[in-house]
Amino acid sequence: MFHSGTYEKGKIMRKKVWFLMLGTMGFVVGFALGENGSSTNTIPSSKKENPNIAISIHTSIHSGDTNRVVKKPSFLQQIKDSKDGNIDFSKYIGSAHGFLPVPIIVTEPAVGFGGGVAFLFLHDSIKNRIEREKEKSSDGKLRHIPPPSVSGVAGFGTENESWGAGAFHLGIWREDTIRYLGAAGYASINYDFYGLGERVPVNVSGIFLLQQITSRLGKSNFFLGANYSLIQAKAKRSHSFGLLPPPAEEGREVTSGGLSPILEYDSRDNIFTPNKGYNAKLEWSYYDNWLGSDNQFSLLTVNNRVWFPIAETLVLGVRLDGNFSGGDVPFYMLPFIHLRGIPAMRYQGRHLLTSELELRWDVTPRWSLVGFAGAGWTSRDDISDLTESDTHPAGGFGFRYLIARIFNLRTGIDFGFSEEEQSIYFITGSAWAW
């Protein structure tokens, strides 16, 4: 006799397969549209490159005199700034077009030291986009640096045997009025879970899929959009002690499929290392059976970051984030305090607040010192418990080097400290990039 439970399981399985196929199709279509968007939204080929840009991009260019060949500058020439003679990757980054390998350095204390590599494909150079942005401007000045469309594959591994691999495509369409992000991959992460009051070493492994699109509202700094995410993961204890909470108890494979409307405001002067501007994001994620999820729950993320100069050589950054959840949230998707000096997933809860200050002092035009301090609060049950929860402080210091002057891209090392941990972080761009 046919059992109704079998029918329901089959129906849920068909939903999961359907959403996985739909997400994969979206990834492929998004990549294809990004290719078309890159070509159809550029200016005519007669204006697309001026001679100065072309010299830095092409291997050789023949002028009116066919015997004269202008060769592409060597790598050493490209990383030397003509203004001050220091090492600078502005020319190299700005003219990069095509495949670009990028090393990955992992220093997160929750998983240990590690590394990897990302192979990126830049569909257009930043320099070309800057020139088009200037041509659109009434006064010929650059208002912001438009990011290029990028595709890539990446992989990493760490000393505690965590590893992951995936692929992504970031599409910047219609002169940065539409942004698309598609990603898919597999990861196996080993870390310590503390949510039930005791340390339980766990492994969480599975696939993930993301489809996201946002659109600029007119000529404003507001973006409105949505994303669909699918995570199919299995959790298990690395040792025999401790328990894992439902709905992701030991050995059970849990699928979480959710839809998230997004509202974002971004007035930063650049996306790499901002000197001024405001970036705020509101995202509400809803997971339910009709979206391919085994459990019903929701996640609300509210991010606020602002940067402003308080003196000619001092830039202050202020961050205030809130994360809230409801329903049957898998323990590995619960919000956690994200501060330099505190391991990821160390303090989790249904609701949390995080605040942080960062002060950058530009000692010289190239070198800067950084100091930062913050705190986080978590609640296991009611949001009102946040006012009575323990404070988890963290702070530290670091340094930056202006590695790409034109883009104000700074890189360096931070040393973070908390109640239980001391950590080191390799930073490129903003430490609040997530």
Give a short synopsis of this structure.
The chain is an alpha+beta fold and 434 residues long. It has helices at residues 4-40, 45-48, 51-57, 75-78, 90-95, 126-136, and strands at 60-62, 69-71, 98-106, 114-122, 150-158, 163-173, 178-193, 200-216, 222-237, 253-266, 277-287, 297-311, 314-327, 351-362, 367-379, 392-404, 409-418, 422-428. The protein has a 16-stranded antiparallel sheet with strand order 3-4-5-6-7-8-9-10-11-12-13-14-15-16-17-18. A two-stranded antiparallel sheet has the order 1-2.
How would you describe this structure to a colleague?
This protein is 16% helix and 47% strand. It is an alpha+beta fold. It has a single domain, classed as Porin. The strands form two sheets. It has a 16-stranded antiparallel beta sheet. It has a two-stranded antiparallel sheet with strand order 1-2. The chain starts with a helix and ends in a 6-residue tail after the last strand. The N terminus is likely disordered.
